[in-house]
Amino acid sequence: MHRNGADMVRPASGRYVSLIVGSAFGLTVPCAHAQTEPATPPVAASAADMPVPATTKVGGRSKAVSDTTTLNTVEITANRRREPAREVPMQVNAISAQELQRKGNQSVRDYLKEEPGVSLVTGAAGAGSDQISIRGVTTGNLDIGPTVGVYVDDVPFGSSTNYGGGANYALDMGLLDLNHIELLRGPQGTLYGAGAMGGLMKYITNEPDTQGGLFGHAGVVFSGTEHGGLNHTQDAVVNVPIKEGVAAFRVSAFNQQNGGYVNRVGNDPENGVDGATTRGGRASLIVTPTKDLTIRLTATTQQIKSDGTGQVDYNFTTRQPLYGDLTQGRQLNEPYDQLIELYSANIEYDFGWARLNAISAYQTIRTSLMADYSLGYVPALNAQFGPSTFTSAGYQQALSTDKFTQELRLTSAANRQIEWIAGLFYTQERTTNNQFATASGPGASLILLNAQLPSTYQEYAAYGDLTYHVTSRLAATAGLRIAHNNQTYSQDVTGALSGGATNKTAQSNDTSKTYLFTLNYLLTGNSSVYARVATGYRPGGPEISVLDSATGKMTQSKFDPDTLTSYEVGYKADFLEKHASVSLSLFDIQWKDVQLLTQIDGLGLISNGGTARSRGVEFFGSLNPTPHWRLSTGLTYTDARLTENVPGIGAMSGDRLPNTAPFSATANLDYLFNVGSYRAYAGATETYVGPRNSGYGGSVSTPNFRLPGYFATDLRAGIDLRVANVSLFVHNLFNRRGMQSASNMLVPLGGPTEVSFIQPLTVGMQVDVPF
């Protein structure tokens, strides 16, 4: 009975089945080498990411940046090596944390809003419950498991399965001493795990600086949102050298309060009910006892709390709000609390001919939420028990995942004719998933569901790739990853919707193979073309078997993995003496055995629903015509559709996949100037997201609420006063009501469509003081 359709229990002919679909949780997979230098923008970066004549932070310390009119290339870790983005044979974007801060961006919704071709859907729980998809590899709210992997440095974050919430709790990390964020488009199955079939998002943090002395910075941000309240953030970073060149300690902390902008009417009215408090901290110790050995220990914690969700109730048929602009109706409060803890150790030894990394990590994710289902379930229950018997229906969930990962990776020395990477990976996770749903009214109370749904996941993997530089211009790469996983799942369920107490267990295992082939040819010293073929894989899983009355047979006790093959060709270049750059890619993704939530005899089951295909074009360009002007743009076209009918949900071949805009674009313009002896900048960003589907046109269980396209305009300006950096920002200048996503899970029960909007007009100021 989860608002997003995950973990729901639906009555059907006196029977039930739990739908652990991943529409409410998650993340996954293994990572790369963190960089210590600040990210300068890649070919595909925005204009605002270009070096500017202002103070920039290097590992948290401030230093002056010289004027330049040429483009730089960021050294990224996409291929688990530090290398210029232009030389990586795939479409990859790096988002500088420095520029995110200048723009006033502080959450994953802000980070990704200017990334065309990347979709982010905010779940029912609001802040911290987000689903990310890239290049149309998604089935919308029906995603069973994650299609985009999420990492923090070398550590895969989040559950690997739908039972642990792998699909819809993409890590929403605040600007907690980040260096940059990398977005890798397309499957990364040979180096980044089975779950990265649609792409990868990596948070790269700053390492402690053993040679920079004692330094740090402290900052504060204040802003106000139309139709909402005040927002504020405080953050600080301190780098403490222990012994120069040998050891250093770095600690950071932040406190962020968002006032919210959605109002609630009902039993407990509240303005800004979607307001959230996010607090976090990180401590990192780096020790280099010899020139060849480096040890980094890191501990990260973050907690998100909110009083309610940011979803607005709409009539599915009339497409009008039920309670007014940015307003929801609730009979029950919907508090949300998520606490994460991540501990990691990265031991690196350089043999000269190769570098060995041993990365151990342990993480815990504790999520609790309450969802009000009164609008969907109260009318149905009163039709059975009598008018006014029940006035409210609510659902509670406590989801807890403990995950351990271990990776051993050997990386050959770079700049050799033959380069290679080989590694072993192991993960073990244990999840508890407790759910409780009730309906109540004057003198009446009914337990609808009481469920304990524990699960485990264990995976062993070996991977590697080999690059052969055929000539000084031509390089060929082949990669392979082989993995085996074992899973268990149990459900102990009672309640009015259960059709009787049930205690059952299921288990599954499967073996996966993913591969990669690339050819990269340097046309000139500043341009290259590439071709890439890569496969992606998402694990299947165990499922409780039920009787299908139509066939008289029991359904399968597991659902199968789904796979995809991605074909990509691209061109990257710097030209006009590095005053301009372009990155162009064309892709064709063929997706087989798509995992979907389907209906069998009125029951919701996870099954494999045929095939889909996503084709598209991505263009990113930057231009620095003079020392004062910076211009960049990004444009994507994505045609993502089912290629087979899915009778279980009423979807047809040719239906567009949800939450994927055919066209999306962004454009940045920055002007750099001086105010007296102080350096300053002013800039603007225009973003367009085209119309999208939230479901499937002919589906009863997953109906389609069409999301119209929208434009959003952001402004920014700042000045370096040397003793402090001061900046102003405006988000959504024209106060557009852009519909970001919609959930229709309550519509089949007669409930509303729940729509999430982009943030209304927000004006803010921030001050950052280095020391």
Overall description:
This protein has 771 residues and is mostly beta strands. 3% of the residues lie in helices and 55% in strands. The chain has 3 helices and 47 strands. The strands form 11 sheets. The chain has a 23-stranded antiparallel β-sheet that branches. Strands 7-12-13-10-11 form a 5-stranded mixed β-sheet. It has a 3-stranded antiparallel β-sheet with strand order 20-46-45, with no helix packed on it.
Q: Which terms summarize this structure?
A:
771 residues; mainly beta; 23-stranded antiparallel sheet; five-stranded mixed sheet; 47 strands; globular
Mean pLDDT: 86
Query: What is the CATH domain class?
Result: Mainly Beta
For the record, the count of structural domains works out to 1
Percent helix, as a range, is under 10%
CATH topology: Maltoporin, Chain A
Strand content: over 45%
Work out the radius of gyration.
25 Å
CATH architecture: Beta Barrel
Low-confidence stretches: 1-74
Write a brief caption for the model.
This protein is mainly β. The protein has a 23-stranded antiparallel beta sheet that branches. A 5-stranded mixed beta sheet has the order 7-12-13-10-11. It is globular, with a radius of gyration of 25 Å.
